Amino acid sequence: MRAAVIGVGNIGTLHAKILSDSGLLCGVCDIDEKRLSAYKDLPCYTDYKAMIDELRPDAVHICTPHYLHAEMVVYALDRGVNVLCEKPLCISYEQLDLVLETEKRSSARLGVCLQNRYNRENVFAKKYLSGKNIVSASAQVAWHRTAEYYATGEWRGKKATEGGGVLINQALHTLDLLQYLCGMPEKIAASVSDLTLKECIEVEDTAVIVSRAGAPVTFFATNGAAADMPVEITVVTDRDTVKIMPGAVYVNGVPQDIGEERYKPLGKACYGSGHGALIADYYGRLESGEPFPINGEAGSGSVRLILAAYKSGGETVNV
């Protein structure tokens, strides 16, 4: 298999390292030529279309700013090139419809990089909760972001290019896990606001979502915490209370044996260790012909939740 990476910034370098260590990396693309200097032994491009058309890789990893994901996914799939796209899959309903329509007609396969599903605590929790009656659930993401963070990229903190704020960037993985473990709510109500970062962003830094159908679910996220706090998910069944935290699961307060790390964590601590496992699974399934579990439709759940939250304005809306 031959794989190329589009965008070798923070998350793209992680993808490139995993692919290089696996002997799969055949080329990279970035509009910033300085970033390409680290890959001088490989074909390097500043135009992703030229890279796809000339290299014809088996797969491309899309690791660019949010607003570019949809157009790049569509271009690659329309040319029969498999795609593994970083989150979010897209940032609007129009883009989502286009991506899913393209996925259906393409001979290639789309995967979405929701790597936290592969973290050992979440693998354990998914298996433990399977078949159980979920009564309620809650999750919280309380992280710290500054003006300096948003200054690291012109696309950050802008509705047109990031698609939103804390929900679509920092909290998306936790929202994905919540619906992965508990099911997708049919209706939600949400409120978003900018409480601490008004001087540097035009999107929300704080959000609350509550379900309005099915099991009661509440979700809170903020970038305005004084420091990064551990992400917490709590799921209550008719028998147990299951608390999921980074590297740990507690059932009724008792720590569970969730096994050892399968892959070394790479990059920021918040990335977890799931990238290696997800990428290995993606390519294993490409070779075997088995379907990859986080295809476009499965990967769109968190995007649908977020877009509904932005539409809500405190009112109940369909997801």
How would you explain this protein's 3D organization?
- The protein is α/β, with parallel strands linked by helices and 319 residues long.
- The chain folds into 2 domains: 3-113, NAD(P)-binding Rossmann-like Domain (Rossmann fold, 3-Layer(aba) Sandwich); 117-264 and 296-318, Dihydrodipicolinate Reductase, domain 2 (2-Layer Sandwich), CATH 3.30.360.10.
- It is built from 12 helices and 15 strands.
- Strands 14-13-12-11-7-10-9-8-15 form a 9-stranded mixed sheet.
- α9 crosses α12 (301-312).
- The longest helix has 15 residues, at 274-288.
- The protein starts with a strand and ends with a strand.
Number of β-strand runs:
15
Structural domain tally: 2
CATH topology of the largest domain: Dihydrodipicolinate Reductase, domain 2
Principal-axis shape equals: globular
Q: What are the segments in which pLDDT stays under 50 over at least 5 consecutive residues?
A: none
